[in-house]
UniProtKB/TrEMBL annotation:
Organism field: Streptomyces smyrnaeus
PANTHER family, per database record: METHYLTRANSFERASE
InterPro entries according to UniProt: Methyltransf_25, Methyltransf_Superfamily, SAM-dependent_MTases_sf
GO MF, one example: methyltransferase activity
Segments forming domain Methyltransferase: 61-156
A Gene Ontology biological process term: methylation
Keyword annotations: Methyltransferase, Transferase
Organism placement in taxonomy: Bacteria, Bacillati, Actinomycetota, Actinomycetes, Kitasatosporales
The protein's name in its UniProt record: Class I SAM-dependent methyltransferase
Pfam families in the cross-refs: Methyltransf_25
Top-level taxon of origin: Bacteria
Length: 243
């Protein structure tokens, strides 16, 4: 990666002082050269877990697809349509190569808000999402899950990876705490808000909200991504099945 491929500090500052949608429109041309893009090992581990646990699936949706990295997962585990939805026109434009992938039928993209998915009821067998949930406040989580529940067929799967939280007192713990604190200060003094938090989706609360929405929830370790010192996995796949 060259320096010109990475976003500069002024570019990141301009993004952070914009709305979420405008910020991603601005960042889109360089997004895949940042650490915000979901790493390939996470995508590969997710695809492997879905292949061995319920796949293959029919129609698949990548929720908040960004530049389309998650479409690789749908391409590996779905036999029919692969659809990506995102509210950033800039990100969808950068995703064009992903949607041109040679798989029948060809994937397609839809610009829409995740709170108002423009699909008929029971349209998909699988919904995945990668790295987008920090943009949703805890109060929004039940509504987001209801949208996913609506577009899934009975017995359909909603799957997304969740990393184990860093241990209190570690450098990673303080780093995420500082980031979230800085975002709260920014949003208190600047408009429009830019919603992005790392510590607002604890697993226990996520699981409870999924169950209340009408999902059965299972956790699948992703051992390819390593283990912590106590032997627990660094990352799990949350697999929510529509009752």
């Amino acid at each position: 990666m060259t320096t010109s491929q990475r976003p500069t500090l002024p570019e990141l500052a301009r993004q952070a002082l914009s709305s979420v949608q405008r910020g991603y429109d601005l960042l889109a041309p360089k997004f895949d050269h940042t650490h915000y893009r979901t790493p390939d090992p996470v995508l590969e581990a997710t695809a492997a877990a879905l292949r061995t646990g319920g796949g293959p699936f029919g129609d698949g949706l990548d929720l908040c697809c960004g530049t389309g990295a998650g479409l690789r997962v749908l391409g590996e585990v779905c036999t029919d349509r692969a659809v990506g939805v995102d509210f950033s026109a800039g990100m969808l434009a950068e995703a064009e190569p992903a949607f041109a992938a040679p798989r029948p039928p060809a994937p397609y993209r839809v610009r829409a808000n995740a709170h108002a998915l423009p699909f008929r009821r029971a349209a998909f067998d699988l919904v995945v999402s990668f790295g987008a949930f920090g943009h949703f406040l805890p109060s929004e989580r039940p509504y987001l899950f209801e949208e996913v529940h609506e577009v899934l067929r009975d017995g359909g799967t909603f799957a997304f990876p969740m990393a184990a939280p860093p241990r209190p007192g570690t450098a990673a713990y303080w780093s995420l705490l500082a980031f979230d604190a800085a975002m709260r200060v920014r949003n208190a003094v600047w408009r429009p808000p830019f919603v992005m938090y790392y510590r607002t989706w604890p697993l226990a609360d996520v699981r409870d909200d999924l169950r209340r929405t009408g999902f059965d929830v299972a956790l699948r370790p992703l051992p390819q991504l390593g283990h912590r010192n106590d032997g627990s996995p660094r990352c799990r796949l949350v697999v929510a099945t529509k009752r």
